[in-house]
Amino acid sequence: MRRANQNNFARPNNGLSDFQKFGLIALGAVAVGAILSNGQHVVSNSGDRVVMRDPDGRYSVYHDDDALLYREGTNYTTQDFGDGSILSRYTQADGTVIVTIRDADGRVLSRHVEYPGGRRVVLFDNTQPSPPPVIAELPPQSPIDLLYTADTDPNLLRAAFETQPIQSAGRTFSLQQIRSIRQVRYLAPEVELTTPSFDSGSSAIDQNQAQSLATLGRVMSDLIAANPNEVFLVEGHSDAVGDPAVNLALSDARAQGLALALTQYYGVPPQNMITQGYGESDLKDQTQGPDDANRRVVIRRITGLLN
Predict the structure, then answer these.
(1) Which of 1, 83, 201, 273 has a CA that sits 20 to 30 A from residue 214's CA?
(2) Which spans of this chain does the record mark as coiled coil (predicted)?
(3) Is residue 229 within 8 Å of residue 121, measured between CB atoms?
């Protein structure tokens, strides 16, 4: 069974509509404390993201991967399928149409763009299974770890994003594999942002803070203009102080907040970004105390890794 809905979306202050505030059809109404059929325990549900704990103690966060696409002036239609997956079409003011398929957990499986005039660009397609990577056979991680500041030279930043792996992996990966397997993610160059800084407990970036993103926004926009199938992963990370579920949710929200700022202030196409929070699971400094180095946002250009 499928159902079509059409909406003229007007973005409220939080960037999400009331109707589709949360794309997790199966999880959005699940109460904190519930135990799912796969054994996962729901520890947090803020309405726009759900944090769960696996039986082995690991935490994971789920959010609507299409949240960046819900913009003022965008018309969208959706088709809901019996397996919980959703096909969405977002028609922007200039006639550009973004088509996504998400699974029942809100994870985007495929995304392509249809431009006025008939051009069609596939960003990624993970609708077919991808064999799991053999970690021991992966090449070394990228040697590029650029610290971005408001004064970073745009040519240096562009060169960092475009750096090729030391050695080819001999294959591509699904988006979920890139997101969830750090050894795969590390194959892409890392650009770590030292700015803007977030207020405690906040994921918002105001216009003054966003000024420090000018070079980043221009370089990303230029790369996408030259190659519309570019995809960037925006990662949020925290230190190990406090509740791990809270850290995970906040890091996820900050990654999304930064991506929204890049779109709102610098016109970076939202369809070319994927956001993911990692909380304290990928510490840069191995310390359990407060650490500014661990509270960071990282951006990777993952185009060459994607199926």
Answers:
(1) 201
(2) none
(3) yes
